[in-house]
TrEMBL record:
Domain Homogentisate 1,2-dioxygenase C-terminal: 274-383
Binding-site residues for Fe cation, renumbered to this chain: H300, D306, H336
Family the entry assigns: Belongs to the homogentisate dioxygenase family.
Residues noted as binding homogentisate in the record, renumbered to the chain: H336
Protein name: Homogentisate 1,2-dioxygenase
UniProt key word Iron: yes
Swiss-Prot/TrEMBL keywords: Dioxygenase, Iron, Metal-binding, Oxidoreductase
Length: 385
């Protein structure tokens, strides 16, 4: 997160003595990415953060691939994913490659029995349904419909839901997730042409420090395995921290779409970037205003990227037979475009209420067994007249 934030108590000078009321020392931890080159935060723990008292069984969470080399456009009926009690068990990878796993989850219960961290991947959780609180060792972030939650790798967290009706689109990214560099000046500040600004971020707040020692179950995702460890002190024992590496939220409803006289290309919708895929937000907006404009997009060949669209709400202008929660996959290798009728029907329309998240990956995506279970199977023929 390219802005500075701090919570709780920290010493005036880094790497110096920081004492508890009883005179003993707090334990400093540098929490960073990309070696010592990326963004980092300095944390101050009540207890040593290194106290592992037991290591239990590991479970293989590697996605089960059904179609390794895919050429078919596909439509997945996302809300057909069955809800499950546990947050991690509810997560079903759908479309995956070596850079990112895109999936769906319908968790019913809050995470209370254990803590979790993903040491392989930054996580993006897009909240389609549900409200609650992302609780982390750096503070809490309340979330609601339309929020992206960006959770850097290694972040210890729990997730608390207010009800059992929750739907999440997730991306586990094996590359750091950033806001697009072109939106920022060389100091890191978001520029005037950026579709959002620093005020829109939901930063961690309400840092809660736990002092308990005991047995605390920690589930760690690493190399596709879910390891279960026991920590000897409460993982949320940070009294203060500062820096740039922390989780944050951003509401898709705060994305200010860029419009033009003629159709604007997908990059104007870009919200996040990595070195291997982008995440874009298609939001309610006014249509193109050239007198002869065609608001629906032109056919396009994403020769070197696969396109995943997740439909959130509204009427998606260029598609027929689409409902909230659906995913469409338009793979590299064949062009795609508006469905028959939608190109012409868009002429003269002045605005759209569509709301969708797009993930474009530079490497082809593999289709998992989970995805085939909710694949309508005929979508690739849907452009035939
Ligand atoms: Fe497209």
């Amino acid at each position: 997160m390219p802005i500075y934030h701090k919570l709780g108590k920290i010493p005036q000078k880094r790497h110096t003595q920081f004492t508890k009321p009883d005179g003993s020392l707090y334990y400093e931890q540098l929490f960073g990415t990309i070696g010592f080159d990326g963004m980092s935060s300095l944390l101050y723990h009540v207890h040593r953060p290194t106290q592992v008292s037991a290591i239990g069984k590991a479970v293989d969470l590697s996605p089960k691939i059904a179609v390794e080399k895919n050429i078919a456009s596909r439509k997945l009926i996302g809300f057909d994913v069955a809800p499950k009690d546990d947050f991690l068990e509810s997560r079903e990878p759908m479309l995956v490659n070596s850079d990112v796993h895109v999936g769906l989850a319908a968790p019913k219960k809050s995470m209370t029995e254990y803590f979790y961290k993903n040491s392989d991947a930054d996580e993006m959780l897009f909240i389609h349904k549900g409200t609650g609180t992302l609780k982390t060792f750096l503070g809490n972030i309340p979330f609601e419909y339309g929020d992206y939650l960006i959770i850097p790798r290694g972040m210890i967290y729990q997730i608390e839901f207010d009800t059992e009706d929750n739907r999440i689109l997730f991306a586990e990214s094996f590359h750091p997730i950033y806001t697009p560099k072109r939106y920022r000046n060389w100091f890191g500040q978001l520029l005037e042409h950026s579709p959002f600004c620093e005020r829109d971020y939901k930063l961690p707040q309400d840092l809660q420090t736990h002092y308990e020692k005991g047995e605390f179950v920690m589930k760690i995702k690493k190399q596709g395995m879910l390891h279960t460890l026991v920590y000897a002190s409460h993982p949320f024992d940070v009294v203060g921290w500062d820096g740039y590496n922390f989780p944050y939220g951003f509401s898709i409803h705060n994305f200010e779409s860029i419009t033009g006289r003629v159709h604007q290309p997908p990059p104007v919708h870009q919200t996040f970037e990595t070195s291997a895929f982008v995440i874009c937000s298609f939001c309610p907006r006014l249509y193109d205003y050239h007198p002869k404009a065609i608001p629906a997009p032109y056919n396009h060949s994403n020769i070197d990227s696969d396109e995943v669209l997740y439909y959130v709400d509204g009427d998606f202008m260029s598609r027929t037979g689409i409902a909230p929660g659906y995913i469409s996959l338009h793979p590299a290798g064949i062009p795609h475009g508006p469905h028959p009728g939608t190109y012409e029907a868009s002429i003269g329309k002045t605005k759209t209420e569509e709301l969708a998240v797009m993930i474009d990956t530079f490497k082809p995506l593999q289709v998992t067994e989970n995805a085939l279970k909710i694949d309508d199977g005929t979508y690739y023929k849907s452009w035939v007249e």
